[in-house]
Amino acid sequence: MAEISTIARPYAQAAFDVAQSDNALSNWATFLSDAATVASQPEVHEIANNPRVSAAQLLSLFEAAIGVTHDSQRNFLATLVNEGRVDALSAISTAFLAHKHAFEGSADAHIVSAYPMADSEVADVTAALEKKFGKKLNATVSVDESLIGGFSVAVGDEVLDMSVRAKLVRMQTALTA
């Protein structure tokens, strides 16, 4: 069987093309994220793989859970359901976001801080990171007290770890080498 990301790519591209032509990238990003969340539920996975559940019933379940209002989104979901590709929704959503970010010249940044950050601190860190990475960043922040101090940032596959824990590990490695 083909890998999920291979299956997801053409669907994500098609969704991006439709969303771009409709000038609705954010709407589609939310729609795909919601659909992926629904599809990831174990109960929905079980229903999707039940041969006694028709495609129309599965489509109705998704429409009710997500609140689909646009025909293009309804048609997209119908295609996925009819082709048995509901399990690929998470990968489709991820690939769609990659297309969206590339188009907008932006990226997601996940900041993990040792302590809760004020909005002004997040704005300052985000501004500095935007200069470093050369693109607009959509920052999300979480707290991990095990960092001891400082923060760690992940942008795509790049990680910038400025935490005290990481510095202590580097010092330990240098001293024991």
What would you say this structure looks like, in words?
- The chain has 177 residues and is α+β, with helices and mostly antiparallel strands.
- The chain has 2 domains: 4-102, Orthogonal Bundle (Peroxidase, domain 1); 106-176, Glutaredoxin, CATH 3.40.30.
- The chain is built from 8 helices and 4 strands.
- The protein has helices spanning 4-21, 25-39, 42-48, 55-66, 71-82, 89-104, 119-133, 164-176, and strands at 106-113, 136-143, 151-155, 158-161.
- β1 (106-113), α7 and β2 form a beta-alpha-beta unit.
- It is a peripheral membrane protein.
- One of its GO terms (cellular component) is proton-transporting ATP synthase complex.
- GO terms for molecular function: proton-transporting ATP synthase activity, rotational mechanism.
- This is ATP synthase subunit delta.
Break the fold down into its secondary structure elements and pairings.
Layout: H1 4-21, H2 25-39, H3 42-48, H4 55-66, H5 71-82, H6 89-104, E1 106-113, H7 119-133, E2 136-143, E3 151-155, E4 158-161, H8 164-176
Parallel strand pairs: 1-2
Antiparallel strand pairs: 1-3, 3-4
Could you please say which CATH topology of the largest domain applies here?
Peroxidase, domain 1
Radius of gyration: 20 Å
Biggest β-sheet strands, sense, barrel: 4 strands, mixed
Q: How big a fraction of the residues is strand?
A: 5-15%
CATH level 1 class label of the largest domain: Mainly Alpha
Which consecutive residue ranges, at least 5 long each, have pLDDT under 50? none
How many alpha or pi helices? 8
CATH architecture of the largest domain: Orthogonal Bundle
Main sheet strand line-up? 2-1-3-4
